[in-house]
Write a structure and sequence with these properties.
The protein is an alpha+beta fold. 36% of the residues lie in helices and 12% in strands. The chain is elongated and about 95 Å long.
Length: 648
Amino acid sequence: MISLLAAAAMSGLPDISHLDEVRHQPQITYLDRTGAILGVRGGQYAAPVDVDRLPPYVPGAFVAIEDRRFYEHAGFDAIGIARALATDLAHGRIVEGASTITQQLARNLFLSPDQTLERKAQEVMLAVQLEQRYSKKQILGMYLSRVYFGGGAYGLEAASRRFFDKPASQLTVAEAAVLAGCLKSPTNYSPIDQPERSAERAHLVLDAMSETGVITAAQHRKALAHPAVAHKSSATATAQYFIDWVDRQTRALIPSPQSDLTVETTLDLPLEGIAANAVTTVVAKEARRGVQQAALVSLDGDGRVRALVGGVSYANSQFDRAVEAHRQAGSAWKPFVYLTAMEAERTPQTPVVDEPVTIDGWSPRNFEPEFLGPITIQTAVAHSINTVAARMADEVGRDNVARTAHRLGIVSTINTDPAMALGTTLVTPLEMAQAYTPFSNGGVRAAAYGIERIRVVGGRVVYQHRTDPPAQVIGNPPLSEMNTMLRDVIVEGTATHAAIRGYDLAGKTGTTSDYKDAWFCGFSGGFTTVVWVGKDDNSPMAGVTGGAAPTTLWRTYMATALPHVHAGAIPGGPPATFAPPIPAPLVAAEPMPDEAPGVIVAPLVSATPIPNPPPRAAAPGADPVSDLLAPPRRQPPPTSAPYPDEPR
């Protein structure tokens, strides 16, 4: 019977001579702009761990608790099997296993977890073959690269970074004990979800390490006195939305990698952490007003994505609201209307009238019921007057407004009905950040991107981002006039709560009429940040406007981000007589639904080019460059006051 079982087991054994092919699948490692690891995607398992590069107590912890006779047996431990059988008989049930580290590796590499005699016999035979072909260090290295630690971490290196935010080579004795303790049951001994049980298990591991001579008595006492504390969320957890975004692009660029890839990205990990903390803090504070989700995108003046937060918690929802959520822009759309007007010979001081207006049977309403009567365009922008924006879009041509938006960076389809002036077009935070960036960098188009270069093993570059020659998409005086008005939005308009003393800031709030979406799109010199808040089910919030939670979130983040990026004054742009040519539409940073990768997203308007407006002199006072960094002329309202998006 035993011989028949052995023969059956032998007949189903895989060929371990090809172990090099199955032990490692190509992986993609993503780095931030400084070289810090953001995450690893691709093959579930890493390359074998180099045991010699670890402190001896790290592999020693696993040997002490999993297989004390690892360096003595030839693949299976007869003494261990006998001891386990005796223990099981004494308890009347299976309480102790007898699989060696080599057997566990064989099972992990080749076999199913089925508890059958045939499978167990195959496990032992494969273990013996592994011991004959590979050294103990090689077997231990392969084992440590494949075991599951929980929390989505396969392999020692991933677990070390997930739970302790450090490479495995820097683990302490206490941390090594925690990780070794996870293997018995990653769920029951998770240092995050079951910290007390994890600590008890780590205590047992430390005792085993001491008993086997892996650590000294002094190290044992120190580890017990200073137990390891796992991170509830790894420092790179917030970057997973960004990694998802660039991972799709990487796989489109290199569909079937034959070796490991390293992707150098534009993300600034410290900024990402600041942004994620701001999102979490402000959403929790504003939950009473119905705010459930938020997104944030920061671009530098060249289009590099420096921070991208797609939601409150990646662990709870992987849907990326920064890249994938198309929501109405509200009044954050109005700069495209007024830029078109400035290019059509209006100025900030052009007189307009806030009064009832009807366009094709549609009558827009303001946030507040009364009308201001005769005002200037600058006042209309600062206080987000809907009637003036709607009439202005009708006067300059809504198709021209759509072209302006596409020219600056909007890639979504734009509707051209009368309400488009108030932001009924569905857009993402990423493309809004892309479209606002020319206001911040001197009027130059900047396509958002996240990948700088891709390398293969050995360092050879297989992809390098190429930036197109600078394309001026806003000329002067329209650029300086728009920035004058957008500064005023923060100084005395709807976004006073976004003011940060000592910085030259400008931007625009946005609120949909039913309070389903609230935005703030703001910038300093060469640094643009767009925030959105709302609900995933598209239901209304409790009166939340762009001047409330979005400006609070924006300011909370930017107050720390601006010193980090050394933000300066908003540049003035080209000479006042310069009028830009109309460039081709931007290529979408990511394919929209039903589009092939790399397809240019054409505007939903006539392809006839808009004639460039003739050059004109800058309007008096259009660009007050003096005293740019002075404190606002009016202090922000008290935090207890409401923050309407369109106040008077």
